[in-house]
Design goal:
By secondary structure, the chain is α/β, with parallel strands linked by helices. The protein contains six helices and six strands. The longest helix is centred in the last third of the chain and has 15 residues. The radius of gyration is 14 Å and the shape is globular.
Length: about 160
């Protein structure tokens, strides 16, 4: 499985309009809801924010990967949003987050959940890709950059 198998173009929002962590997460949850990938926006938001209470998903280098596992999600889905001015995610490097990947998935496959988190992290370790995504103006452009970068990685099961 590739990240682009679950990160569909319709799940990319550029620009995110939110100015806070929670409003940006809500925008990405709305994309998943519109695509009928989740049953309830409220339960997914609560699950994601409960996860944020444990530890920030602002992983540094302008990246955040909020995520949750929940019964309201029957299959894995990833949303991507770009907020060019950056939002406070209480990131580990204390810098604003511009690139937000939202990962939601079912509770019954924690192994794939971890593999997708790892895949996102590995892709985002590429500084050039981060810089390209941070300046993207369209979802097609962002998807193309990610798709191109994924060609250098093995697929995950």
């Amino acid at each position: 499985m590739r990240l682009t198998d679950v990160l569909l173009k319709d799940l990319i929002k550029i620009p995110l309009r939110g100015k806070t962590r929670d409003t940006c997460i809500k925008e990405l949850i709305e994309k998943l809801y519109e695509s009928k990938l989740i049953k309830s926006k409220e339960t997914i938001l609560k699950a994601v924010l409960d996860r944020e209470k444990i530890m920030t998903t602002g992983v540094g280098n302008s990246i955040a990967i909020p995520h949750c596992k929940h019964t309201d999600c029957k299959e894995f889905a990833v949303g991507l949003g770009i907020q060019s001015s950056g939002v406070d995610f209480a990131a580990i490097d204390k810098k604003p987050v511009k690139i937000i990947f939202l990962l939601v998935g079912p509770e019954n496959n924690p192994g794939l959940h971890i593999k997708l988190l790892s895949r996102i992290s590995r892709l985002m370790s590429n500084e050039e890709l981060r810089n390209q995504l941070a300046t993207c103006k369209t979802k097609d452009e962002a998807y193309s950059f990610i798709q191109e970068e994924e060609n250098y990685f093995f697929e995950i099961d």
